[in-house]
Design goal:
The protein is mainly alpha-helical. It contains six helices and no strands. Helix 2 packs antiparallel against helix 4, helix 4 packs across helix 5 and helix 4 crosses helix 6. It is rod-shaped, with a radius of gyration of 36 Å. Required for nuclear membrane fusion during karyogamy. It holds the Pfam family Tht1.
Length: 172
């Protein structure tokens, strides 16, 4: 599973995946967000190579330079320039285009995880609620049994008293 593979990769990939996860709603609709996410993943991959350096046009999208990311640096023009610089290398372009295709799949996987977690929470809450109901019903049944036993005892005592009174009245 691609999602688990990214969680085992270096911090750059974890940061990029976390960013993708937090922006999945935008990534479904917004091509710019998908392109930015694919660039981030590509730059993480390039950073693992010993003999390649990041294209200068892409520096604002590097997770190492997160502190300089501003709207000024992240314009559509700079986004296009970064993509163009990746296109100059077959290897970079292959990585970028692969990540661009993978971003929606990652979001689908993130949503699936979220949905599974949500279903587990709902199931847990329903189970806890049902257990509380069963405990309540068991306690109510015990109390009802105690009330019935008490009524039987009182009835027995009352019957015994009436029996003794009847015997006494007969003897008198």
């Amino acid at each position: 599973d691609a999602l688990q593979a990214y969680s085992r990769k270096p911090d750059c990939f974890k940061k990029a995946a976390a960013t993708i996860r937090s922006r999945c709603t935008d990534l479904d609709m917004d091509e710019e967000a998908r392109v930015t996410a694919a660039i981030s993943m590509t730059l993480c991959e390039v950073a693992t190579a010993k003999h390649y350096s990041l294209p200068l046009e892409c520096l604002p999208y590097s997770h190492d330079n997160a502190h300089i990311k501003t709207k000024r640096h992240m314009s559509l023009q700079s986004l296009g320039e970064c993509v163009d610089s990746l296109a100059r290398s077959a290897q970079f372009w292959s990585s970028y285009s692969g990540y661009l295709r993978e971003v929606p799949q990652l979001c689908h996987a993130f949503r699936r995880w979220h949905d599974i977690d949500l279903a587990r929470d709902i199931y847990h809450n329903a189970t806890v609620e049902k257990l509380a109901l069963v405990r309540f019903l068991v306690n109510r049944e015990k109390k009802a049994d105690q009330v019935v036993e008490e009524m039987i005892k009182q009835s027995s005592v009352s019957i015994s008293k009436n029996g003794v009174l009847g015997i006494l009245q007969r003897d008198l």
